[in-house]
């Protein structure tokens, strides 16, 4: 049985899938005890179990169920960076939809890994590789695709005011996350390379976005995509610029973020510095 696991691991290593322990990833210390289910293996196990149950009509049903489950085994692969707020947004969405066990994770440095551009001409994370080898990119699109895989879709309301409202919040939060990323990059430049006024501009976008979120604070309870994007933005802000004191003048947003941060989808996707 362990042979199956070893073979799957070496196949995983060959394909470059990140083996870091990660709850969103199927290879965790818990699953390391178990053989990796393959379609054939699951069908065989299901068949043997059905024979043992001495109830022949169940065998076919169980085989079909096993094959169906096996066909979801890493049907999708998310190319991600652990520092990216956009990749985190997708991972939070996958968790909230209960789809993270169908999505493998491949850690990649978008700046240096040439494999990414073959899938996504922009060479950005997140990029979602589908089972047929095609790819989807742009976090908003990936989240909407994931939502369409869930039953029922939950993150993107049907066309109407609720949809426009949450898409606007997503756009605001994504733009603010981009500004925070550019501010972080700007501050790492040597003084001679910094463009005057750039830091202020990014900081203004971040501050104004926080103010807008404070005025129209996301509700407690199950999130829509705009709420997830807001959480990803604020999580990134706290990760890159700890102790900035944004909370002092945004008490409602601060309270909402504290509650949201305790969701499993947040706890299992926390940012980690690039290693
Ligand atoms: N609008 C894109 C933004 C993605 C993005 O900017 N990703 C960054 C990492 S946070 C990246 O891959 N940068 C590499 C590059 O710009 O070449 C989305 O929502 O997915």
Alpha carbon gap, first and last residue: 33 Å
The CATH class of the domain at 161-267:
Mainly Alpha
What is the radius of gyration? 21 Å
Structural class comes to: mainly alpha
Distinct bound molecules: glutathione
List the secondary-structure elements in sequence, H or E.
HHHEHEHEEHHHHHH
Which CATH architecture of the domain at 161-267 is right? Up-down Bundle
Tell me about this structure.
This protein has helices spanning 2-15, 39-52, 56-71, 85-96, 114-119, 139-149, 161-188, 198-215, 225-240, 251-261, 264-267, and strands spanning 76-80, 103-107, 127-129, 135-137. The two termini are 33 Å apart. It is mainly α. Helix 2 runs antiparallel to helix 3, helix 4 (85-96) runs parallel beside helix 6 (139-149) and helix 4 packs across helix 9 (225-240). It has a domain at 161-267: Up-down Bundle (Glutathione S-transferase Yfyf (Class Pi), Chain A, domain 2). The chain is built from eleven helices and four strands, in the order H-H-H-E-H-E-H-E-E-H-H-H-H-H-H. The structure holds glutathione. Glutathione binds next to helix 6 and helix 7.
Descriptive keywords:
binds glutathione, Glutathione S-transferase Yfyf (Class Pi), Chain A, domain 2, mainly alpha, 4 strands, 55% helix, globular, 275 residues, 4-stranded mixed sheet
Short description, anyone?
With about 280 residues, the chain is mostly helical. About 55% of the residues lie in helices and about 5% in strands.
């Amino acid at each position: 049985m362990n042979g199956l696991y070893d073979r799957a691991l070496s196949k995983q290593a060959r394909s470059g899938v990140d083996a870091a322990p990660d709850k969103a990833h199927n290879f965790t210390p818990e699953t390391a005890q178990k053989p990796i289910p393959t379609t054939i293996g699951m069908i065989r196990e299901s068949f043997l179990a059905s024979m043992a149950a001495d109830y022949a009509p169940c065998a076919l049903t169980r085989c079909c169920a096993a094959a169906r489950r096996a066909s979801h085994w890493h049907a999708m692969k998310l190319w991600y960076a652990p520092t990216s707020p956009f990749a985190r947004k997708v991972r939070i969405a996958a968790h909230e939809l209960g789809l993270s066990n169908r999505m493998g994770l491949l850690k990649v440095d978008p700046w240096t890994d040439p494999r990414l551009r073959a899938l996504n001409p922009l060479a950005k994370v997140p990029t979602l590789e589908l089972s047929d080898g095609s790819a989807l990119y742009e976090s908003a699109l990936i989240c909407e695709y994931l939502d369409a895989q869930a039953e029922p879709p939950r993150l993107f309301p049907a066309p109407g005011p609720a949809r426009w409202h949450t898409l606007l919040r997503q756009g605001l939060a994504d733009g603010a996350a981009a500004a925070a990323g550019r501010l972080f990059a700007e501050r790492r430049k040597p003084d001679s390379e910094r463009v005057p006024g750039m830091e202020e501009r990014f900081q203004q976008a971040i501050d104004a976005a926080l103010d807008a979120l404070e005025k129209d604070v996301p509700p407690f309870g199950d999130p829509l995509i705009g709420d997830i994007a807001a959480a990803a933005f604020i999580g990134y802000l706290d990760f890159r610029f700890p102790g900035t004191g944004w909370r002092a003048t945004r008490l409602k947003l601060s309270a909402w973020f504290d509650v949201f941060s305790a969701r499993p989808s947040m706890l299992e996707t926390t940012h980690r510095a690039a290693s």
